[in-house]
């Protein structure tokens, strides 16, 4: 009996320990592969890349982590590729960080394509590269970033399985991809009876909501969502065909196999909905042979739905005047939403004295944080907040961050603003959302920082 108890105890111990031992063995194998990769890079330690003014100083590996340290030739920042990145970053430091991150990904991707063992690591394992860029004297990093093996796989896929020999060519592709992601989310319909909103881009699929009036819903739904699909395709082409890199955009759509999912909803009856797909081949075909010219998309929708073209400020929403007349039930529903915070209204909130008064107020109220002056941190913080029907500013949140100290100062200053002139909708004062950018810039005289609002 004692032997049986001993046997069963031993059995359960082995059963529990075997998976743990297997996991430990797998972790050891990953660490071994990571260290082998680092060993293969030993001849690159100490070499300066003149293009980026960066020298590979250290590289070491632990379980699922590869740590890399680069030394920058100086502590100042200058635009590395102004002909490619000009106007796309708030500061030269941000541009340098973006370029350096893509440079590291490009190097790893090239190494993976040249080595079967590293290629299997990139394909099968999950590693994280942590990279610090320090000044000539060492010390605290000038900037840091990280990326995972997925970023390397994405880079290889972006380049069709063959990385460009020239880093500059690869950087051009990443900038175009960045622009494409921005364009995909920025599609809108300048029409008062339909509008795209809630764009969500994940991996290779863009999901968007298309709202329309009760009258417009069956028209947008008819013929397999013909009008809905043409609305998105036409609006996307209208924006992207004006870009000099349009052909590169099409190449990336083909490589990435980006598809669009349109969820059509009746604004009066949200339960009445439909869903349509636009596949990459259709986007590329439309680019060659548009059913409706991108310059005539509003005219096409007006012909379908009636109504009129609206300014860009109304994108994503529409005026519900083309829906059914307000019934008692609809009036009750609207009354029950009296606490609603509007995104788009007939009369947007305004600051007494207009934009010059906003600039004057913030220029006088901002206190540039001392550490940001010392470290020459600059940038544009964008805050979004609610202006109540009484004109009070509340719920201030940062939607585009630069630095925690600058973010905090922007929130403090906006939260303390005097009363605004509230928004109006259907003749009544309402709560409304508002966005305000605060640009922090330093003059040559660091004791007298310049604050600008744009």
Describe this structure in words.
The protein is of the alpha+beta class and 454 residues long. It is built from 14 helices and 15 strands. The strands form three sheets. Strands 10, 11, 12, 13, 14 and 15 form a six-stranded mixed β-sheet that branches. The longest helix has 39 residues, at 2-40. It is globular, with a radius of gyration of 28 Å. Mean pLDDT is 80; it is low at 319-337 and 446-454.
Q: Which of globular, elongated, flat, extended, rod-shaped describes the shape?
A: globular
* Class derived from helix and strand content: alpha+beta
Average per-residue pLDDT, rounded, comes to: 80
Radius of gyration equals 28 Å
Largest sheet: 6 strands, mixed
Helical content class? 40-55%
Oligomer state equals single chain
List segments where confidence is low: pLDDT < 50 over at least 5 consecutive residues: 319-337, 446-454
N- to C-terminal distance: 84 Å
The count of β-strands is 15
Strand content: 15-25%
